TrEMBL record:
<dbReference type="InterPro" id="IPR009100">
    <property type="entry name" value="AcylCoA_DH/oxidase_NM_dom_sf"/>
</dbReference>
<feature type="domain" description="Acyl-CoA oxidase C-alpha1">
    <location>
        <begin position="269"/>
        <end position="425"/>
    </location>
</feature>
<keyword id="KW-0276">Fatty acid metabolism</keyword>
<comment type="pathway">
    <text>Lipid metabolism; peroxisomal fatty acid beta-oxidation.</text>
</comment>
<dbReference type="GO" id="GO:0000038">
    <property type="term" value="P:very long-chain fatty acid metabolic process"/>
</dbReference>
<feature type="binding site">
    <location>
        <position position="138"/>
    </location>
    <ligand>
        <name>FAD</name>
    </ligand>
</feature>
<dbReference type="InterPro" id="IPR036250">
    <property type="entry name" value="AcylCo_DH-like_C"/>
</dbReference>
<keyword id="KW-0285">Flavoprotein</keyword>
<dbReference type="InterPro" id="IPR037069">
    <property type="entry name" value="AcylCoA_DH/ox_N_sf"/>
</dbReference>
<dbReference type="Pfam" id="PF14749">
    <property type="entry name" value="Acyl-CoA_ox_N"/>
</dbReference>
<dbReference type="InterPro" id="IPR002655">
    <property type="entry name" value="Acyl-CoA_oxidase_C"/>
</dbReference>
<dbReference type="Pfam" id="PF22924">
    <property type="entry name" value="ACOX_C_alpha1"/>
</dbReference>
<feature type="active site" description="Proton acceptor">
    <location>
        <position position="414"/>
    </location>
</feature>
<dbReference type="GO" id="GO:0071949">
    <property type="term" value="F:FAD binding"/>
</dbReference>
<feature type="domain" description="Acyl-coenzyme A oxidase N-terminal">
    <location>
        <begin position="15"/>
        <end position="131"/>
    </location>
</feature>
<dbReference type="GO" id="GO:0055088">
    <property type="term" value="P:lipid homeostasis"/>
</dbReference>
<dbReference type="InterPro" id="IPR046373">
    <property type="entry name" value="Acyl-CoA_Oxase/DH_mid-dom_sf"/>
</dbReference>
Amino acid sequence: MNPDIVKERQNASFDVQKLTYILDGGPEKTKRRREISLVLNDPDFDEEDPNFLSRSERYEQAVRKSAQMILKLREYGISDPAEINCYKSVVRGNFHESLGLHYVMFLPTLYSQCDQEQSKKWLPLATSFEVLGTYAQTELGHTHLRGLETTATFDPTTQEFVLNSPTVTSIKWWPGAGKTSNHAVVLAQLYTRGKCHGLHAFIVQLRHMDTHEPLPILVGDIGPKFGFSEVDNGFLKLDHVRIPRENMLMKHVEPDGRYVKPASAKLTYGTMVFIRSLLVGLSALVMAKSCTIAIRYSAVRHQSEIRSEPEPQILDYQTQQYKLFPLLATAYAFSFVGQYMTETYYRISGDINQGDLSELPELHAVSAGLKAFTTWTTNTGIEVCRMSCGGHGYSRSSALPDLYAEFTPTCTYEGENTVMMLQTAYLVKSYRQAKAGEQLRGIMSYLNDMEQRHVRAHPASARPALVDINDLSDLVESYKLRAALVESAAKSIQQELQKRRSHEDAWNNSAIDLVKASDAHCHYMVVKLFTDKLSEIGDPDINLVLTTLAQLYALHGIALNSGDFLQAGLLTVPQMQQIPVRIKELLCLIRPNAVALVDAFDFPDKVLSSVLGRYDGNVYENLFEWARRSPLNATEVHESFHKYLK
Ligand SMILES: CCCCCCCCCC/C=C\CCCC(=O)SCCNC(=O)CCNC(=O)[C@H](O)C(C)(C)COP(=O)(O)OP(=O)(O)OC[C@H]1O[C@@H](n2cnc3c(N)ncnc32)[C@H](O)[C@@H]1OP(=O)(O)O
Ligand SMILES: Cc1cc2nc3c(=O)[nH]c(=O)nc-3n(C[C@H](O)[C@H](O)[C@H](O)COP(=O)(O)OP(=O)(O)OC[C@H]3O[C@@H](n4cnc5c(N)ncnc54)[C@H](O)[C@@H]3O)c2cc1C
């Protein structure tokens, strides 16, 4: 064990194990997660570092691992969805798998949209993996749902739907598992009796069940990408492909072609809401991994000098702390927000299953906004962590390049982030309702007292300062008032309308304000949820260290967005000047606990897969060892010498 890292652990002021329990949701859950993690010792999961393999080898290795995972899940009798998720995220490490979409989109779509008869037919096939599914929605030319071109036309004479991609732009593009899957949930515009009824989901068989040969359908892999090398993102062109009427999910077409309206057309989009909710938790996980790597490495790396003494640990440099500790605070904040998002998703979808759709718009808005907010922040954060590791952060052995390449598409898939932030219609609607005197409930209730607060551009000197920067509840309050930026967005729309612009143009001309309002709303939610969580934590040592992190998270956010807070008169200029001073104090308070705080995330070394983030801190000898395994070192003289240089 590296002596620096040993010393760091001795300095901790709290019980790391107890903090792990809080993050997992209780000691039982930690115990179970650790039991599941023992699978990492299984030699069947031994594999070559994917960084040393070609794309085709990576795909093959990933498929082998996926198949092994399925067999082991059966062998160990793991069937609880949360446990399957935990098991898979342990085994998968930092990479995705081509069968991932079967689990996260195909199966959930079947569970939520099959009727009884369909469940009886499809679920046994899909849960036994005879049917391997993908989710084919996006097209070469479009992702906007109303703009999708693939059609499903009902033919009452044969009781079939005819699926067709009429143009190049209508070819399905990006769905994972182009080579792996034999079925797809295809999203297509439904036509019956000559009328279009919008987007609906259909189960389409793509390949022969025994030979895996494609049916008369063009299907394949779209080629190498920025990352996702294990995943065969695919294309799919349907040329008048016929499927039985029973393959339409939720069965909205009667045998005579009559269309039966669903309770809400948006239920078809349910799987996206599910994944967006999951991505909040994934952001927390990846932020936590990146911080673990960068902070452990910074504790063992020594460089240059502060005083004329031996080289200090780079974690002692104030600038290094300023790079990493706000991200550490973010990882904790997002962990609690991830827990909230999962609970909220299951609570509201439970109500939806009982026929109560009243909270569906809020679930959509919150999951879309928090997905965008947390993935954007994490995306930037991983890169900061990588750079904070200097040159070694650029080596694939650090895992940080892979974490970035695998994570960055979360800002794009399941709804491009700007587009998701623009789903703020809900915020603007709520604002208008509150302004009309309606009492809002839940997370939007802060808009109720807007009329009294009138948060908008004012000279700071004209307002009393509301905030004690050392008081977390005051900071939450000021984020809440800043979130009232939605007022500016609503006003911008109003002004545009007054210029006789159409509603659509008024919306587009206010889009920057709308995205800002959405961002401020999400930021408020994160600060509030982090602060609320503190009241549940009884252990005084842990409460103290997490309060320090929450303060850092809140103040750092204010420093980054100081213009908003000053403009709204929520803080005075002298207070704004105090914030960097307080931030520096908080960095010093966090410093002795930094390694313990990342240890509490409890990532086994095999899950981190990072030489820099090793628990024992023995970085250098293992970097050397890793490099020697590079395929270029397989021979002392590379064949290129004989071919070209000699
Ligand atoms: C630790 C956990 C690990 C978990 C790991 C998970 C990792 C996953 C790895 C998998 C890898 C990759 C998977 C990627 C899969 C995909 O990307 S699938 C494709 C996803 N595509 C999209 O997301 C498309 C984005 N676009 C849209 O959703 C819509 O076009 C958009 C919402 C932008 C607009 O919707 P439209 O219906 O076309 O248009 P509008 O008329 O504007 O909307 C009408 C009203 O409906 C409301 N709405 C929209 N969506 C929903 C919804 N989902 N639920 C409820 N309500 C919705 C919208 O707000 C409008 O409301 P209003 O009329 O204003 O009241
Ligand atoms: C790794 C990966 C895996 C994927 N897996 C799947 C899958 O399994 N199944 C599937 O169906 N799809 C999948 N996708 C596709 C993914 O869902 C889409 O790429 C995503 O929804 C974004 O759509 P787009 O690519 O059309 O981007 P675009 O919408 O074309 O975005 C391009 C730019 O235009 C801007 N823009 C677009 N519309 C607006 C607007 N209304 N207002 C303001 N700005 C706008 C965006 O902000 C962005 O800057 C995957 C994508 C990736 C990268």
